[in-house]
Amino acid sequence: DAGVTQSPTHLIKTRGQHVTLRCSPISGHKSVSWYQQVLGQGPQFIFQYYEKEERGRGNFPDRFSARQFPNYSSELNVNALLLGDSALYLCASSRGLAGTTDTQYFGPGTRLTVL
Amino acid sequence: RKEVEQDPGPFNVPEGATVAFNCTYSNSASQSFFWYRQDCRKEPKLLMSVYSSGNEDGRFTAQLNRASQYISLLIRDSKLSDSATYLCVVTRGGFKTIFGAGTRLFVKA
After folding, report:
1. Over the stretch B3-47, which tens digit does the pLDDT of each residue have?
2. Are the beta carbons of B97 and A45 separated by less than 8 Å?
């Protein structure tokens, strides 16, 4: 089975621009979570979507938004990019809600650089 | 104070050594506990879940103490391939997953 896939792998943007990151979960998984990981830190929870509904949100500004499609793939959108948004953005999928005992499987991430 | 705190590291150990990582969490409503491993510039991968009864997987042993809000990971007979960052992970509320900052391990020949 294919694992979690993310696109693009790398992205360079300038301040003020907008970015869309994409994630395809493992087949049969209905939950997708997004994380931001800056260098030297652990991943920080941004959103969880389950069955196409937002089920949880971390402490990120409204510039961050996401959605999940009927095929369970997901997009993360970030508006008005700041230098501090430079990070590795990770997507994780799980069968059920990620905040339970369900294992989360991570994709390889999208490395975003904001200049 | 961060909700999940880990030993800052890095840990530098010789092959064959036993190494222990500690993690504390501050929210008593935390429900599930995990250790993930992350190699340099790669995604995190589940190493093991952590249960109150303790669990062992080969050279790896994880323990949870809910009363003290403390989680540990013990690696016996360290291998060069164990070199990585070890992330302590806690979940609560049915949706929120909190990662510690990670502890870096270097195993030397």
Report:
1. 999 998 899 999 999 999 999 999 888 888 999 999 998 999 999
2. yes
Integer CA distances (angstroms), B55 to A73, A86, A99, B50, in order: 34, 37, 20, 7
B94/A97 CB distance under 8 A: yes
Residues of B in contact with A35 (CB under 8 A): 97, 99
Give the C-alpha distances (Å, rounded to integers) separating A38 from A11, A30, B55: 15, 27, 31
- State which residue of chain B sits closest to A48, comparing Cα positions: B95
pLDDT of res. A30: 93
A62-112 tens-digit pLDDT? 999 999 999 999 999 999 999 999 999 999 999 887 666 678 999 999 999
Q: Is B93 an 8 Å CB contact of chain A? A: yes
- Residue pair A32/A68 in contact (Cβ under 8 Å)? The answer is yes
- Identity at A43, one-letter amino acid code: P
Q: A48 CB near a chain B CB, below 8 Å?
A: yes
